[in-house]
Amino acid sequence: MICHEFSWLVSDTHGDIDWSKLNTRNFPIQKELTKDDVVIVAGDVALCWQGKNDDKYIQKWYKEKNFTTLAVEGNHEGYDEINKLPIVKKFGGRVRKIADNVFYAIRGEIYEINGKKVLTCGGADSTDRGYRQENIDWWAAETINQKDFDCALNNLEKYNYNIDYFITHTGGAEVARTLGFMPTNSDKYIDFLLSALPKVRHLCGHYHIDRLINSQSRILYNDIIELTWYFTFCVKYDIIIIEN
Predict the structure, then answer these.
(1) Which of 21, 53, 179, 236 is the most buried (most CB within 10 A)?
(2) Phi, psi of 86 (to 5 degrees)
Protein backbone atom coordinates (compact mmCIF):
# COMPACT_ATOMS: atom_id res chain seq x y z
CA MET A 1 0.00 0.00 0.00
CA ILE A 2 1.03 3.62 -0.59
CA CYS A 3 1.86 5.04 2.82
CA HIS A 4 2.90 8.59 1.88
CA GLU A 5 1.86 11.27 -0.56
CA PHE A 6 3.22 11.23 -4.11
CA SER A 7 3.61 13.77 -6.89
CA TRP A 8 3.91 12.66 -10.49
CA LEU A 9 4.55 14.50 -13.75
CA VAL A 10 3.54 13.80 -17.32
CA SER A 11 2.94 16.07 -20.31
CA ASP A 12 0.85 16.62 -23.43
CA THR A 13 -2.23 14.52 -22.86
CA HIS A 14 -4.15 16.50 -25.53
CA GLY A 15 -7.68 16.03 -24.29
CA ASP A 16 -8.70 12.46 -25.07
CA ILE A 17 -6.07 12.02 -27.80
CA ASP A 18 -3.15 11.07 -25.56
CA TRP A 19 -4.84 10.57 -22.20
CA SER A 20 -4.07 6.84 -22.36
CA LYS A 21 -0.77 7.80 -20.73
CA LEU A 22 -2.78 8.06 -17.54
CA ASN A 23 -4.95 4.97 -17.85
CA THR A 24 -4.58 2.12 -15.38
CA ARG A 25 -2.50 0.01 -17.75
CA ASN A 26 0.15 2.63 -18.37
CA PHE A 27 -0.03 4.21 -14.92
CA PRO A 28 -1.01 1.29 -12.69
CA ILE A 29 0.13 2.81 -9.39
CA GLN A 30 -2.89 5.13 -9.54
CA LYS A 31 -4.99 2.28 -8.14
CA GLU A 32 -3.23 2.87 -4.83
CA LEU A 33 -3.28 6.67 -4.91
CA THR A 34 -5.67 9.06 -3.17
CA LYS A 35 -6.80 12.62 -3.72
CA ASP A 36 -3.78 13.69 -1.62
CA ASP A 37 -1.53 12.46 -4.44
CA VAL A 38 -1.01 14.94 -7.27
CA VAL A 39 -0.40 14.38 -10.98
CA ILE A 40 0.92 17.48 -12.74
CA VAL A 41 0.47 17.67 -16.52
CA ALA A 42 3.03 19.99 -18.12
CA GLY A 43 0.81 21.59 -20.73
CA ASP A 44 -1.45 20.75 -23.67
CA VAL A 45 -3.96 19.12 -21.35
CA ALA A 46 -7.00 20.58 -23.15
CA LEU A 47 -9.39 20.18 -20.24
CA CYS A 48 -11.10 23.23 -21.69
CA TRP A 49 -11.63 23.95 -25.36
CA GLN A 50 -14.98 25.29 -26.52
CA GLY A 51 -17.05 24.73 -23.38
CA LYS A 52 -19.14 22.04 -25.03
CA ASN A 53 -19.88 18.39 -24.27
CA ASP A 54 -16.37 17.27 -25.26
CA ASP A 55 -14.99 19.40 -22.43
CA LYS A 56 -17.42 17.87 -19.93
CA TYR A 57 -16.48 14.38 -21.09
CA ILE A 58 -12.75 14.99 -20.64
CA GLN A 59 -13.18 16.77 -17.33
CA LYS A 60 -15.34 13.91 -16.01
CA TRP A 61 -12.55 11.43 -16.82
CA TYR A 62 -10.12 13.39 -14.65
CA LYS A 63 -12.67 14.02 -11.90
CA GLU A 64 -13.15 10.26 -11.51
CA LYS A 65 -9.43 9.60 -11.01
CA ASN A 66 -8.19 8.61 -7.56
CA PHE A 67 -5.60 11.41 -7.66
CA THR A 68 -5.71 15.21 -7.95
CA THR A 69 -4.73 16.76 -11.28
CA LEU A 70 -2.89 20.07 -11.63
CA ALA A 71 -2.82 21.11 -15.28
CA VAL A 72 -0.18 23.57 -16.48
CA GLU A 73 -1.30 25.55 -19.53
CA GLY A 74 0.14 24.70 -22.92
CA ASN A 75 -0.39 26.30 -26.29
CA HIS A 76 -3.23 23.97 -27.28
CA GLU A 77 -5.73 25.03 -24.64
CA GLY A 78 -9.08 26.83 -24.80
CA TYR A 79 -8.07 30.02 -23.03
CA ASP A 80 -11.48 31.68 -23.21
CA GLU A 81 -12.93 28.78 -21.23
CA ILE A 82 -9.97 28.56 -18.84
CA ASN A 83 -10.36 32.24 -17.98
CA LYS A 84 -14.00 31.66 -16.98
CA LEU A 85 -12.97 29.21 -14.25
CA PRO A 86 -13.12 30.48 -10.66
CA ILE A 87 -9.81 31.28 -8.95
CA VAL A 88 -9.34 29.58 -5.58
CA LYS A 89 -6.48 28.89 -3.19
CA LYS A 90 -4.86 25.45 -3.41
CA PHE A 91 -1.38 24.16 -2.63
CA GLY A 92 -0.55 27.53 -1.10
CA GLY A 93 -1.16 29.44 -4.34
CA ARG A 94 -3.88 30.52 -6.73
CA VAL A 95 -5.39 28.00 -9.15
CA ARG A 96 -8.37 27.86 -11.48
CA LYS A 97 -10.83 25.23 -10.32
CA ILE A 98 -12.65 22.70 -12.50
CA ALA A 99 -13.50 20.28 -9.69
CA ASP A 100 -12.37 19.46 -6.15
CA ASN A 101 -9.55 17.36 -7.63
CA VAL A 102 -8.96 19.06 -11.01
CA PHE A 103 -7.26 22.45 -11.38
CA TYR A 104 -5.37 24.65 -13.81
CA ALA A 105 -2.16 26.24 -12.51
CA ILE A 106 -1.81 30.01 -12.86
CA ARG A 107 1.40 31.25 -14.44
CA GLY A 108 3.99 32.46 -11.99
CA GLU A 109 2.42 30.83 -8.93
CA ILE A 110 4.49 28.72 -6.53
CA TYR A 111 2.78 25.66 -5.08
CA GLU A 112 3.73 23.55 -2.10
CA ILE A 113 2.92 20.03 -3.22
CA ASN A 114 3.71 17.11 -0.96
CA GLY A 115 6.80 18.70 0.54
CA LYS A 116 8.12 20.27 -2.66
CA LYS A 117 7.98 23.88 -3.81
CA VAL A 118 6.99 24.09 -7.47
CA LEU A 119 6.98 27.19 -9.69
CA THR A 120 4.84 26.85 -12.80
CA CYS A 121 4.77 29.01 -15.90
CA GLY A 122 2.59 27.52 -18.61
CA GLY A 123 2.10 28.76 -22.13
CA ALA A 124 3.98 28.50 -25.42
CA ASP A 125 3.78 29.88 -28.95
CA SER A 126 2.02 27.66 -31.49
CA THR A 127 4.04 27.06 -34.65
CA ASP A 128 0.88 25.76 -36.35
CA ARG A 129 -1.25 28.86 -35.80
CA GLY A 130 -1.22 29.52 -39.55
CA TYR A 131 -3.48 26.48 -39.90
CA ARG A 132 -5.78 27.51 -37.04
CA GLN A 133 -8.42 30.16 -36.38
CA GLU A 134 -7.83 32.71 -33.65
CA ASN A 135 -10.26 32.30 -30.74
CA ILE A 136 -11.55 29.07 -32.30
CA ASP A 137 -8.61 26.68 -31.95
CA TRP A 138 -5.76 28.95 -30.91
CA TRP A 139 -5.65 31.94 -28.59
CA ALA A 140 -3.19 34.81 -28.29
CA ALA A 141 -3.23 34.25 -24.53
CA GLU A 142 -1.03 31.19 -25.10
CA THR A 143 2.05 33.46 -25.22
CA ILE A 144 3.90 34.12 -21.96
CA ASN A 145 4.02 37.84 -21.23
CA GLN A 146 5.59 40.40 -18.90
CA LYS A 147 2.74 40.09 -16.39
CA ASP A 148 3.36 36.34 -16.07
CA PHE A 149 7.08 36.97 -15.65
CA ASP A 150 6.54 39.65 -13.01
CA CYS A 151 4.19 37.37 -11.08
CA ALA A 152 6.84 34.64 -11.06
CA LEU A 153 9.55 37.03 -9.87
CA ASN A 154 7.36 38.44 -7.11
CA ASN A 155 6.58 34.96 -5.82
CA LEU A 156 10.21 33.85 -6.08
CA GLU A 157 11.21 36.81 -3.93
CA LYS A 158 8.70 35.69 -1.27
CA TYR A 159 10.44 32.30 -1.22
CA ASN A 160 13.94 33.80 -1.47
CA TYR A 161 14.28 31.89 -4.75
CA ASN A 162 14.32 28.67 -2.73
CA ILE A 163 12.19 26.25 -4.74
CA ASP A 164 12.59 22.64 -5.88
CA TYR A 165 11.06 22.48 -9.35
CA PHE A 166 10.27 24.79 -12.25
CA ILE A 167 7.59 23.25 -14.48
CA THR A 168 6.75 24.81 -17.84
CA HIS A 169 5.30 23.79 -21.17
CA THR A 170 7.79 25.36 -23.56
CA GLY A 171 11.44 24.74 -22.74
CA GLY A 172 13.25 28.05 -23.15
CA ALA A 173 15.75 29.26 -25.73
CA GLU A 174 18.54 26.78 -24.98
CA VAL A 175 16.18 23.82 -25.14
CA ALA A 176 14.66 25.10 -28.39
CA ARG A 177 18.04 25.63 -30.03
CA THR A 178 19.29 22.22 -28.87
CA LEU A 179 16.34 20.66 -30.71
CA GLY A 180 16.85 22.80 -33.81
CA PHE A 181 13.97 25.23 -33.23
CA MET A 182 13.95 29.02 -33.29
CA PRO A 183 13.24 30.36 -29.77
CA THR A 184 9.95 32.19 -29.38
CA ASN A 185 8.89 35.12 -27.23
CA SER A 186 7.62 32.68 -24.61
CA ASP A 187 10.98 30.89 -24.60
CA LYS A 188 12.77 34.14 -23.80
CA TYR A 189 10.73 34.61 -20.62
CA ILE A 190 11.43 31.02 -19.57
CA ASP A 191 15.15 31.66 -20.11
CA PHE A 192 15.04 34.76 -17.89
CA LEU A 193 13.52 32.67 -15.11
CA LEU A 194 15.97 29.80 -15.64
CA SER A 195 18.88 32.23 -15.33
CA ALA A 196 17.53 33.21 -11.90
CA LEU A 197 17.19 29.55 -10.89
CA PRO A 198 20.49 27.93 -11.95
CA LYS A 199 20.24 25.01 -9.51
CA VAL A 200 16.51 24.33 -9.80
CA ARG A 201 15.33 21.28 -11.71
CA HIS A 202 13.39 22.29 -14.81
CA LEU A 203 10.81 20.03 -16.47
CA CYS A 204 8.80 20.80 -19.59
CA GLY A 205 6.72 19.22 -22.36
CA HIS A 206 5.75 20.67 -25.75
CA TYR A 207 8.27 18.90 -28.02
CA HIS A 208 6.74 15.40 -28.05
CA ILE A 209 9.96 13.67 -27.04
CA ASP A 210 11.47 12.32 -23.83
CA ARG A 211 14.95 13.72 -23.41
CA LEU A 212 17.38 14.94 -20.76
CA ILE A 213 18.76 18.16 -22.27
CA ASN A 214 21.35 19.07 -19.63
CA SER A 215 21.89 18.88 -15.89
CA GLN A 216 18.95 21.25 -15.34
CA SER A 217 16.31 20.62 -18.01
CA ARG A 218 14.36 17.55 -19.02
CA ILE A 219 11.59 17.19 -21.61
CA LEU A 220 8.70 14.81 -21.03
CA TYR A 221 6.23 13.30 -23.44
CA ASN A 222 5.46 9.62 -22.80
CA ASP A 223 7.47 9.18 -19.62
CA ILE A 224 5.69 9.52 -16.31
CA ILE A 225 8.03 10.45 -13.49
CA GLU A 226 7.75 10.81 -9.78
CA LEU A 227 9.02 14.13 -8.48
CA THR A 228 11.79 13.35 -6.02
CA TRP A 229 14.50 15.37 -4.35
CA TYR A 230 17.08 14.05 -6.81
CA PHE A 231 17.57 14.75 -10.47
CA THR A 232 18.72 11.14 -10.83
CA PHE A 233 15.04 10.13 -10.99
CA CYS A 234 15.53 10.02 -14.78
CA VAL A 235 16.01 6.25 -14.83
CA LYS A 236 14.84 5.11 -11.44
CA TYR A 237 11.31 6.44 -11.55
CA ASP A 238 10.42 6.34 -15.25
CA ILE A 239 7.36 4.42 -16.28
CA ILE A 240 7.75 3.54 -19.94
CA ILE A 241 4.50 4.09 -21.79
CA ILE A 242 3.34 1.28 -24.05
CA GLU A 243 1.76 2.74 -27.15
CA ASN A 244 -1.81 1.61 -27.87
Answers:
(1) 21
(2) -70, 145
